[in-house]
Design brief:
alpha/beta, Rossmann fold, six-stranded mixed β-sheet, two-stranded antiparallel ribbon, 31% helix
Length: 257
């Protein structure tokens, strides 16, 4: 297990530096939330590992959140339970403590993905639900032509879906998750039809892969996108996406029982 950053972040991204405005851009998308809730159906108690600011924590369950970053714990809204300070690789709970376990947009930041997934299985009596991205599909997105190192970073960080299902064991279903054009959760692919959003520095900071690219390179990437939007090049190549209601990109939901 690697050491934590100053605010307690235990993964590869420093949320003391990038997490300040995270909750303003990373709101739960209701249509994705409905799929997560459906995957947890039948559970009463749920542990949410890498809970962040609380996205996708449904009031239908009694949720125990676990989050190592102090800056992320501080952004949790008042109506959600406070998060336990802990890391995925060492969950501070006895075996079979919960009916189910969940994690969303988190496993790519863990220092030991397999250990964290084993821990989720250990503390859960029922299903383990993982919302993540398929690294084999991350580069199949128009942003790769503008910010290749950003998406290379994402593809490198996300574990292979087969590795996730193998670590969880049991029977696993993997479902491609459609991303709506007006997606409230601001990850990179959420802006497939709204490319202008990626010109906003705060929106980029809410996508942790951008923090692995030096500011000069990120500036070149965004200036390239800015030029192509201004002169119509982006719309000539990708404008049909503006009218496409959903994108089937790299986002997947894994449910293992």
């Amino acid at each position: 297990m690697t050491g934590r950053t100053a605010d307690g972040s235990a993964g590869d991204a420093d949320y003391a530096a990038i997490g300040g405005g995270y909750s303003a851009y990373r709101q739960p998308e209701p249509r994705i939330a409905a799929l997560v809730e459906q995957a947890l159906d039948g559970a009463r108690t749920v542990v949410n590992v890498g809970a962040g600011a609380g996205s996708y924590e449904s009031s239908a369950f009694e949720v125990t959140p676990v989050e190592p970053s102090a800056s992320m714990r501080a952004q949790r809204p008042a109506h959600l339970p406070p998060a336990v300070d802990g890391v995925a690789e060492r969950l501070p709970f006895p075996d079979d403590s919960f009916d189910a376990a969940m994690t969303t947009f988190s496993i790519h930041q863990w220092s030991d993905t397999a250990a964290g997934l084993h821990e989720m299985r250990r503390v859960s009596r029922g299903p383990v639900v993982v919302l993540t991205c398929d690294p084999d599909l991350v580069r199949d997105f128009w942003l790769y032509a503008y910010a290749p190192l950003v998406l290379d970073t994402e593809a490198r960080r996300y574990p292979a879906v087969a590795a996730v299902t193998e670590a969880l064991g049991g029977h696993a279903d993997v479902t491609a998750v459609p991303i709506p054009a007006d997606c409230a959760d601001g990850f990179n692919e959420a802006y497939y039809a709204r490319p202008e959003m990626l010109l906003d520095p705060a929106a980029r900071r809410a996508c942790s892969a951008w923090s692995f690219v030096d500011p000069e390179t990120a500036g070149r990437y965004t200036e390239h996108l800015r030029r192509d939007l201004a002169d119509g090049t982006w719309d000539a190549r990708h404008g049909a996406l503006r009218d496409q209601p959903f994108l089937r990109g790299s986002l997947v939901l894994v449910r293992a029982v």
